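ok so for the tutorial part 2 we go from a plain amino acid sequence to predicted structure tokens. step 1 is just haveing the sequence, like this:
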Amino acid sequence: MLGFYDYTVWLTYLSLLSAVAGICISLHAAGHPYLGVFFLMLSGLCDAFDGRVARTKKDRSPAEKAFGIQIDSLADLVAFGVLPACIGEAISTVGPQIYGISRFSFFGLGGDRAVSILILFILMFYVLAALIRLAYFNVMEEERQKTEGGCRKTYIGLPVTSAALIFPSIMLLQYILPFDITPIYYLALLVTGFLFVSKIQVKKPGVCGVWIMVGIGAVEALILLLALLLVRHIH
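step 2 — the prediction. this is what the tokens look like for a chain of 235 residues:
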């Protein structure tokens, strides 16, 4: 078969599979965005360690290294580009409810075709920005390796993997705020998309930074899980 299948690519494959599952679950039937976000966080967890796992194999061929770079970007586009957009679409379908808990409705304020078109453009812009960010990073990283070598210390533009922490945090707001968080989610998509393609410098996290982000993600996942279980128990 084509491709590579040793342990160095397993986490990247798992990240993609998690993202696809999240997309399907988010858009299934009436929509399940609060379940889809768990798969977004799982993809983020896989992405946090896939590069480190791959580098443990010292005898990787140039083809294996290049393959790993390509599938990492493709998986990131699906996981942190397409999946958050699908969660946003699912939120607009479900509306301001979490398993029957009614909230002040953004869509009750006269949501019409213009709002739907605006939402569509925001979703498309976000995915496009993620695509541009990933492709540009690959090109610039290849050029940098020719002149500098080694690991980079900063990123230009917000890394797309930040979506694994940003959007779960916003979803948590629905359990706190007495109104629909849908417009906040779409605003976050818009702002995050702009940050993907901006020229801001973001320091690359070290091992300690990665573990801190993993810890934050674990806390978010635990709170979301407890909230979902509590709401289901009440109803």
